[in-house]
C-alpha cells in the first residue's frame, strides 16, 4: 500500500489480487445479496483509492481495508433499515430486527439450508455484528484485537461477539446434522424436527 | 458462564468450525467487477493525490492575486502620469524623434556657438542669452566645459 501511495500502479494490482476474495466473501456473506455486495465491493475499493494519500502503515493493511468495508456495510444496513421503514405507511412502527432473529426460528434455517450449506445458512441467521466478527477472523485471520480495531469496539466486545457467533454456529450445526434432504420431505417436517426433535 | 475453552479452541484455527468453513465454496468477484475496479485505480493514478492540494493552492493564489490586482491595482493607486503605458512609450518615442529632427534641422554646435559669441561681442547680450537657451534645449547633453572650451563662449 505504501508503494501504491507513492505512485506505483502495479502495487495496487498486487493488493487487489491478494484481498479481493476475502473482501468479496465478507461483503457477500454480510449483506447476503450479490448485487449489493458488488456495489459495496466497488465502493470499498473506490474509497481506498481516494484516500490512499492518507494511508499510514501503522497496522496490517487488512485492518485498514476491512475498516473501510465495515463502514460501508454499516452505511448499507442503515440505508436498508430506513428504506424498509419507509415502505410502511405512517403510523405503523416497524420494530428493528431482534438481536437474535432467525437463529431460534427453525423454519428460517431450514429454508436457507435447502439452498446452501448448513453452516452458511446458520451464519446468515446471526446478528450482523457476530457474523462480521466470525467472517473477519475466518476470511482474513485477524486477531481479536484487530477485529476490535476494524469494528470500532473494545476488545472485550469483539471477543464476546465472536464467542456468541461460534457458539450459535456450533449449536445450529448440531441441530442441522440430520440432513434435510434425507430425513425431511417437507418444510413442515423439518420444522417439527427442529422444534420437537422428531420427524 | 461461557465454557473457557470455547473461544480459545476456535482461535487456534484448527477447530472443526474453521475446517468446515474452509470447505465452503469461496466465491470471487465477477470479472467485470475486477475490470471496473482496476480501471478506476489506473484512472485515479493519473490524478496523483498529492497534486490535488497543489492545484487547489495554485488556484487560490491566482484568485487572490487577481482580486488584489482589481482592488488595489492601477485604478486605485493613481500614477503621477496617468497616461497608459503604451501611449507613454509612443509619446516618448515621438519626443525622441522630434528632438532628433530638431537637431538635424539646427545648425552645427560649433557654428551656433560662434554665432552666439559674435552676438555677445556685438553687445547684443539678450539675444545671445536667448540663443544660448535654444542651444541648450537643442543640445542638452552638450557639456558646460565644452561650451567654455569654445572660443568666444560666454563666461
Describe the model:
The complex is a heterodimer of chains A (about 200) and B (about 160). Chain A has about 200 residues and is an all-alpha fold. Chain A has helices at about 1-5, 10-30, 35-50, 60-85, 105-115, 120-125, 130-140, 145-150, 155-175, 180-185, 185-195. Chain A is globular. Chain B is mainly alpha-helical. Chain B has helices at about 5-10, 15-20, 30-45, 50-70, 85-105, 110-120, 125-140, 145-150. Chain B is rod-shaped, with a radius of gyration of 46 Å. Chain B starts with a helix and ends in a 6-residue tail after the last helix. In chain B, about 5% of the residues are buried. Classes of the chains: A mainly alpha (about 200), B mainly alpha (about 160). The interface of A and B includes residues 7, 137, 163 and 167 of A.
Global Rg of chain A: 19 Å
Q: State the order of secondary-structure elements of chain B, H for helix, E for strand.
A: HHHHHHHH
Amount of beta strand of chain A:
under 5%
The CA-CA distance between the termini of chain A, in Å, is 55 Å
Annotated CATH topology of the largest domain in chain A: Arc Repressor Mutant, subunit A
Number of strands of chain B: 0
Largest sheet properties of chain B = none
Structural class of chain B: mainly alpha
Q: Rg of chain B from C-alpha positions?
A: 46 Å
Overall mean pLDDT score of chain A?
78
> If interface size is counted as residues with C-beta under 8 Å from the partner's C-beta, which chains form the largest one?
A-B, 34 and 31 residues
Strand content of chain B: under 5%
Helix fraction of chain B, binned, reads 55-70%
Subunit organisation of the chains: heterodimer
Along the chain, the helix and strand elements of chain A come as: HHHHHHHHHHH
Tell me the overall shape of chain B: rod-shaped
Coarse morphology of chain A: globular
Quick one: how many beta strands of chain A?
0
Number of domains of chain A: 2
- The average pLDDT of chain B is 72
Number of helices of chain B: 8
Amino acid at each position: 500500500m505504501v508503494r501504491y501511495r507513492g505512485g506505483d500502479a502495479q502495487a495496487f494490482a498486487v493488493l487487489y489480487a491478494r484481498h479481493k476474495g476475502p473482501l468479496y466473501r465478507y461483503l457477500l456473506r454480510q449483506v447476503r445479496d450479490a448485487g449489493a455486495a458488488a456495489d459495496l465491493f466497488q465502493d470499498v475499493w473506490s474509497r481506498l483509492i481516494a484516500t490512499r494519500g492518507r494511508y499510514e502503515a501503522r497496522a496490517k493493511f487488512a485492518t485498514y481495508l476491512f475498516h473501510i468495508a465495515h463502514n460501508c456495510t454499516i452505511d448499507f444496513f442503515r440505508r436498508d433499515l430506513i428504506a424498509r421503514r419507509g415502505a410502511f405507511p405512517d403510523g405503523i412502527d416497524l420494530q428493528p430486527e431482534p438481536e437474535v432473529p432467525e437463529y431460534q426460528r427453525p423454519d428460517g434455517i431450514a429454508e436457507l439450508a435447502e439452498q446452501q450449506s448448513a453452516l452458511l445458512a446458520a451464519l446468515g441467521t446471526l446478528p450482523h455484528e457476530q457474523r462480521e466478527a466470525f467472517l473477519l477472523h475466518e476470511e482474513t485471520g485477524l486477531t481479536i484485537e484487530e477485529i476490535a480495531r476494524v469494528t470500532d469496539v473494545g476488545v472485550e466486545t469483539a471477543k464476546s461477539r465472536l464467542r456468541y457467533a461460534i457458539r450459535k454456529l456450533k449449536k445450529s450445526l448440531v441441530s442441522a446434522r440430520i440432513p434435510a434432504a434425507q430425513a425431511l420431505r417437507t418444510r413442515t417436517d423439518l420444522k417439527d424436527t427442529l422444534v420437537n426433535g422428531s420427524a | 458462564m461461557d465454557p473457557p475453552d470455547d473461544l480459545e479452541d476456535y482461535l487456534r484455527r484448527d477447530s472443526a468450525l474453521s475446517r468446515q468453513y474452509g470447505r465452503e465454496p469461496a466465491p470471487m468477484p465477477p470479472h467485470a467487477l475486477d475490470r471496473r475496479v482496476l480501471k478506476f485505480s489506473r484512472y485515479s493514478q493519473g490524478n496523483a493525490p498529492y497534486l490535488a492540494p497543489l492545484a487547489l493552492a495554485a488556484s487560490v493564489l491566482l484568485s487572490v492575486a487577481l482580486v488584489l490586482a482589481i482592488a488595489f491595482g492601477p485604478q486605485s493607486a493613481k500614477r503621477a502620469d496617468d497616461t497608459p503605458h503604451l501611449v507613454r512609450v509612443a509619446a516618448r518615442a515621438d519626443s525622441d524623434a522630434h528632438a532628433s529632427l530638431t537637431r538635424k534641422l539646427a545648425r552645427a554646435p560649433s557654428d551656433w556657438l560662434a554665432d552666439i559669441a559674435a552676438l555677445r561681442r556685438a553687445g547684443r547680450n539678450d539675444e545671445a542669452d536667448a540663443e544660448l537657451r535654444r542651444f541648450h534645449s537643442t543640445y542638452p547633453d552638450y557639456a558646460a566645459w565644452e561650451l567654455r572650451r569654445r572660443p568666444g563662449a560666454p563666461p
